[in-house]
Write a structure and sequence with these properties.
The complex is a heterodimer. Chain A has no helices and twelve strands. Chain A is mainly beta. In chain A, strands 2, 5, 6, 10, 11 and 12 form a six-stranded mixed β-sheet that branches. A four-stranded antiparallel β-sheet of chain A has the order 3-9-8-7, with no helix packed on it. Chain A starts with a strand and ends with a strand. In chain B, the strands form two sheets. In chain B, strands 2, 4, 5, 6, 9, 10 and 11 form a seven-stranded mixed β-sheet that branches. Chain B has a four-stranded antiparallel β-sheet with strand order 1-3-8-7, with no helix packed on it. The chains are: A mainly beta, B mainly beta. Chains A and B meet through strand 5, strand 6 and strand 11 of A and strand 4 and strand 5 of B.
Chain lengths: 111, 113
Protein backbone atom coordinates (compact mmCIF):
# COMPACT_ATOMS: atom_id res chain seq x y z
CA UNK A 1 0.00 0.00 0.00
CA UNK A 2 0.91 3.66 -0.04
CA UNK A 3 2.94 4.95 2.87
CA UNK A 4 5.36 7.64 3.93
CA UNK A 5 8.36 7.30 6.23
CA UNK A 6 10.08 10.36 7.63
CA UNK A 7 12.99 10.79 9.97
CA UNK A 8 12.21 10.64 13.63
CA UNK A 9 12.56 13.74 15.70
CA UNK A 10 12.89 15.76 17.57
CA UNK A 11 15.38 17.87 15.67
CA UNK A 12 17.03 20.76 17.50
CA UNK A 13 19.07 23.32 15.61
CA UNK A 14 20.61 26.69 16.24
CA UNK A 15 19.35 29.69 14.30
CA UNK A 16 20.87 29.94 10.78
CA UNK A 17 21.76 26.23 10.69
CA UNK A 18 21.03 24.06 7.65
CA UNK A 19 17.97 21.84 7.89
CA UNK A 20 17.28 18.49 6.27
CA UNK A 21 14.29 16.33 7.15
CA UNK A 22 14.30 13.04 5.26
CA UNK A 23 11.17 11.56 3.71
CA UNK A 24 10.80 8.41 1.63
CA UNK A 25 7.64 6.93 0.21
CA UNK A 26 6.11 3.73 -1.08
CA UNK A 27 3.37 4.07 -3.65
CA UNK A 28 1.81 2.54 -6.71
CA UNK A 29 1.55 4.76 -9.73
CA UNK A 30 2.66 8.37 -9.66
CA UNK A 31 1.66 10.12 -6.45
CA UNK A 32 1.85 13.80 -5.66
CA UNK A 33 4.09 14.65 -2.71
CA UNK A 34 3.65 17.30 -0.04
CA UNK A 35 5.15 18.88 3.03
CA UNK A 36 2.73 20.24 5.61
CA UNK A 37 3.68 22.28 8.69
CA UNK A 38 1.87 22.43 12.02
CA UNK A 39 2.57 25.36 14.32
CA UNK A 40 1.72 25.00 18.02
CA UNK A 41 -2.02 24.90 18.68
CA UNK A 42 -2.94 25.01 15.00
CA UNK A 43 -4.01 22.70 12.22
CA UNK A 44 -1.70 21.68 9.41
CA UNK A 45 -0.88 24.07 6.59
CA UNK A 46 0.47 23.20 3.18
CA UNK A 47 4.13 24.24 2.93
CA UNK A 48 5.05 22.98 -0.54
CA UNK A 49 4.24 20.28 -3.05
CA UNK A 50 5.51 18.49 -6.17
CA UNK A 51 3.31 16.60 -8.57
CA UNK A 52 5.77 14.72 -10.78
CA UNK A 53 9.29 13.35 -10.82
CA UNK A 54 12.12 15.93 -10.71
CA UNK A 55 9.73 18.73 -9.73
CA UNK A 56 11.00 21.01 -6.98
CA UNK A 57 8.53 22.50 -4.55
CA UNK A 58 9.57 25.63 -2.69
CA UNK A 59 8.09 28.12 -0.23
CA UNK A 60 9.37 30.40 2.55
CA UNK A 61 12.95 29.28 1.90
CA UNK A 62 12.09 25.58 2.15
CA UNK A 63 12.68 23.25 -0.79
CA UNK A 64 12.04 19.62 -1.65
CA UNK A 65 12.70 17.71 -4.87
CA UNK A 66 10.61 14.74 -6.03
CA UNK A 67 13.14 11.95 -6.63
CA UNK A 68 11.50 8.95 -8.23
CA UNK A 69 14.72 6.94 -8.46
CA UNK A 70 15.22 7.08 -4.69
CA UNK A 71 11.49 7.47 -3.83
CA UNK A 72 12.37 10.47 -1.69
CA UNK A 73 11.15 14.01 -1.02
CA UNK A 74 13.57 15.45 1.52
CA UNK A 75 12.82 18.87 3.00
CA UNK A 76 15.69 21.39 3.16
CA UNK A 77 16.25 24.95 4.28
CA UNK A 78 19.55 26.74 4.15
CA UNK A 79 19.16 28.92 7.23
CA UNK A 80 16.46 28.20 9.79
CA UNK A 81 14.86 30.77 12.05
CA UNK A 82 13.26 30.48 15.48
CA UNK A 83 9.89 31.00 13.80
CA UNK A 84 10.40 27.76 11.84
CA UNK A 85 9.92 25.75 15.02
CA UNK A 86 6.99 23.45 14.28
CA UNK A 87 6.09 19.89 13.37
CA UNK A 88 6.68 18.97 9.72
CA UNK A 89 4.70 16.25 7.94
CA UNK A 90 5.56 14.58 4.67
CA UNK A 91 2.54 13.29 2.74
CA UNK A 92 1.58 11.65 -0.51
CA UNK A 93 -1.62 11.61 -2.49
CA UNK A 94 -2.31 8.87 -4.99
CA UNK A 95 -4.82 8.59 -7.79
CA UNK A 96 -7.77 7.81 -5.55
CA UNK A 97 -7.23 11.08 -3.70
CA UNK A 98 -6.35 9.39 -0.42
CA UNK A 99 -3.78 11.56 1.40
CA UNK A 100 -1.31 9.59 3.55
CA UNK A 101 0.85 11.37 6.13
CA UNK A 102 4.14 10.50 7.77
CA UNK A 103 4.52 10.48 11.55
CA UNK A 104 5.77 14.06 11.69
CA UNK A 105 9.13 15.53 12.72
CA UNK A 106 9.28 18.15 15.46
CA UNK A 107 11.81 20.92 14.79
CA UNK A 108 12.99 23.28 17.50
CA UNK A 109 15.22 26.20 16.52
CA UNK A 110 17.11 27.92 19.31
CA UNK A 111 18.33 31.52 19.14
CA UNK B 1 -13.24 33.95 11.42
CA UNK B 2 -11.66 30.58 10.64
CA UNK B 3 -12.54 28.97 7.31
CA UNK B 4 -12.74 25.50 8.90
CA UNK B 5 -14.23 25.48 12.39
CA UNK B 6 -14.24 22.55 14.76
CA UNK B 7 -16.27 22.28 17.95
CA UNK B 8 -15.55 21.63 20.72
CA UNK B 9 -11.84 22.47 21.02
CA UNK B 10 -11.45 20.12 23.97
CA UNK B 11 -13.60 17.32 25.36
CA UNK B 12 -13.19 14.90 28.23
CA UNK B 13 -15.57 11.98 28.37
CA UNK B 14 -15.96 8.55 29.91
CA UNK B 15 -15.74 5.12 28.38
CA UNK B 16 -19.00 4.06 26.75
CA UNK B 17 -20.36 7.55 26.16
CA UNK B 18 -21.53 8.75 22.76
CA UNK B 19 -19.60 11.74 21.46
CA UNK B 20 -20.08 13.97 18.43
CA UNK B 21 -17.42 16.25 17.02
CA UNK B 22 -18.58 18.90 14.61
CA UNK B 23 -16.96 20.60 11.67
CA UNK B 24 -18.22 23.45 9.55
CA UNK B 25 -16.56 25.29 6.68
CA UNK B 26 -17.10 28.55 4.85
CA UNK B 27 -14.77 27.77 1.95
CA UNK B 28 -17.48 26.29 -0.26
CA UNK B 29 -15.46 23.10 -0.74
CA UNK B 30 -17.13 19.85 -1.74
CA UNK B 31 -14.62 17.53 -0.07
CA UNK B 32 -14.33 17.08 3.67
CA UNK B 33 -12.20 14.75 5.78
CA UNK B 34 -11.74 13.58 9.35
CA UNK B 35 -8.26 12.65 10.61
CA UNK B 36 -6.89 11.67 14.00
CA UNK B 37 -3.40 12.54 15.15
CA UNK B 38 -1.47 10.37 17.57
CA UNK B 39 2.11 10.94 18.74
CA UNK B 40 4.54 9.00 16.56
CA UNK B 41 1.83 7.97 14.11
CA UNK B 42 1.11 11.20 12.31
CA UNK B 43 -2.36 11.73 10.85
CA UNK B 44 -4.58 8.85 9.88
CA UNK B 45 -7.72 9.18 7.79
CA UNK B 46 -10.97 8.12 9.45
CA UNK B 47 -13.66 9.06 6.91
CA UNK B 48 -14.00 11.35 3.93
CA UNK B 49 -16.81 12.75 1.84
CA UNK B 50 -16.63 14.12 -1.70
CA UNK B 51 -20.13 15.60 -1.64
CA UNK B 52 -23.29 15.53 0.45
CA UNK B 53 -24.36 12.06 -0.70
CA UNK B 54 -20.90 10.52 -0.65
CA UNK B 55 -19.30 8.90 2.42
CA UNK B 56 -16.12 6.79 2.31
CA UNK B 57 -14.18 4.89 4.93
CA UNK B 58 -10.55 5.75 5.51
CA UNK B 59 -7.72 3.78 7.11
CA UNK B 60 -9.23 3.53 10.59
CA UNK B 61 -13.02 3.85 10.43
CA UNK B 62 -13.88 1.15 13.00
CA UNK B 63 -15.61 2.64 16.04
CA UNK B 64 -16.51 5.85 14.19
CA UNK B 65 -19.37 7.10 12.04
CA UNK B 66 -19.94 10.33 10.14
CA UNK B 67 -22.77 12.44 8.83
CA UNK B 68 -22.58 14.98 5.99
CA UNK B 69 -25.57 17.14 6.85
CA UNK B 70 -24.84 19.78 4.23
CA UNK B 71 -22.00 20.85 1.99
CA UNK B 72 -20.65 22.94 4.86
CA UNK B 73 -21.07 20.45 7.71
CA UNK B 74 -19.40 17.12 8.43
CA UNK B 75 -19.72 15.56 11.89
CA UNK B 76 -17.82 12.66 13.42
CA UNK B 77 -19.42 10.40 16.02
CA UNK B 78 -18.00 7.91 18.46
CA UNK B 79 -20.95 5.68 19.34
CA UNK B 80 -19.31 4.18 22.42
CA UNK B 81 -16.03 5.90 23.25
CA UNK B 82 -13.04 3.87 24.42
CA UNK B 83 -9.71 5.08 25.89
CA UNK B 84 -7.66 4.32 22.75
CA UNK B 85 -9.77 6.87 20.91
CA UNK B 86 -8.04 9.55 22.95
CA UNK B 87 -6.38 11.69 20.28
CA UNK B 88 -6.33 15.03 18.51
CA UNK B 89 -8.97 15.07 15.77
CA UNK B 90 -8.75 17.26 12.69
CA UNK B 91 -11.32 18.15 10.09
CA UNK B 92 -10.07 19.21 6.67
CA UNK B 93 -11.51 20.35 3.33
CA UNK B 94 -10.36 20.51 -0.27
CA UNK B 95 -11.81 21.98 -3.42
CA UNK B 96 -12.15 18.85 -5.48
CA UNK B 97 -10.69 16.92 -8.37
CA UNK B 98 -7.40 18.43 -9.44
CA UNK B 99 -6.96 20.41 -6.24
CA UNK B 100 -4.80 18.59 -3.76
CA UNK B 101 -4.40 21.20 -1.04
CA UNK B 102 -6.05 20.41 2.27
CA UNK B 103 -7.29 23.13 4.61
CA UNK B 104 -7.36 22.09 8.26
CA UNK B 105 -9.33 23.17 11.28
CA UNK B 106 -7.57 23.84 14.59
CA UNK B 107 -8.38 20.41 15.98
CA UNK B 108 -10.40 18.86 18.80
CA UNK B 109 -8.52 17.25 21.67
CA UNK B 110 -10.58 14.31 22.90
CA UNK B 111 -9.75 12.43 26.08
CA UNK B 112 -11.64 9.24 26.93
CA UNK B 113 -11.22 8.17 30.56
Amino acid sequence: GNSVTQMEGPVTLSEEAFLTINCTYTATGYPSLFWYVQYPGEGLQLLLKATKADDKGSNKGFEATYRKETTSFHLEKGSVQVSDSAVYFCALRNNNNDMRFGAGTRLTVKP
Amino acid sequence: DADVTQTPRNRITKTGKRIMLECSQTKGHDRMYWYRQDPGLGLRLIYYSFDVKDINKGEISDGYSVSRQAQAKFSLSLESAIPNQTALYFCATSEGQGSEKLFFGSGTQLSVL
